[in-house]
Amino acid sequence: SKGKKTYNDASGTAPTEEQAKPKCRNTYRLEPRTKVQDGLIRDKAQAILMNKLQGATYDGASSPFLCASISEEILKAVKDLDYDRYKYVVSVLIVEKANQAMIVASRCLWDVQRDTWVSAKCETDTFIALAL
């Protein structure tokens, strides 16, 4: 039919009208059922940072990959907590201790009633790691 896309399943047949219907109806609910527990997420992020970085030294070449793997692990741990109707953004910075200042800035739209943020920090002799 015109304008309709049909997809074949593994058997090569098109899905029936009944199979294409969504399982649940839209609730149009904006607020989450349970509020995020900041302390629980902070503890998980802190444990992941300490586990990955304990005894490590700063290496400029491998730090970007380490930041990516830590942020993916934190994101997975937070998603496993199964909070509904939240979008998660995880940012990890690893900065060498070189007696210099650093300024980090970001922007977002913020809903005071629903949005929150958590930070975790791991400091060694050669670097500081910060997870947001």
From TrEMBL:
<dbReference type="GO" id="GO:0005737">
    <property type="term" value="C:cytoplasm"/>
</dbReference>
<dbReference type="GO" id="GO:0005868">
    <property type="term" value="C:cytoplasmic dynein complex"/>
</dbReference>
<dbReference type="GO" id="GO:0045505">
    <property type="term" value="F:dynein intermediate chain binding"/>
</dbReference>
<dbReference type="GO" id="GO:0007018">
    <property type="term" value="P:microtubule-based movement"/>
</dbReference>
<feature type="region of interest" description="Disordered">
    <location>
        <begin position="1"/>
        <end position="28"/>
    </location>
</feature>
<comment type="similarity">
    <text>Belongs to the dynein light chain Tctex-type family.</text>
</comment>
<dbReference type="InterPro" id="IPR005334">
    <property type="entry name" value="Tctex-1-like"/>
</dbReference>
<dbReference type="InterPro" id="IPR038586">
    <property type="entry name" value="Tctex-1-like_sf"/>
</dbReference>
<dbReference type="Pfam" id="PF03645">
    <property type="entry name" value="Tctex-1"/>
</dbReference>
<protein>
    <submittedName>
        <fullName>Tctex1 domain-containing protein 3</fullName>
    </submittedName>
</protein>
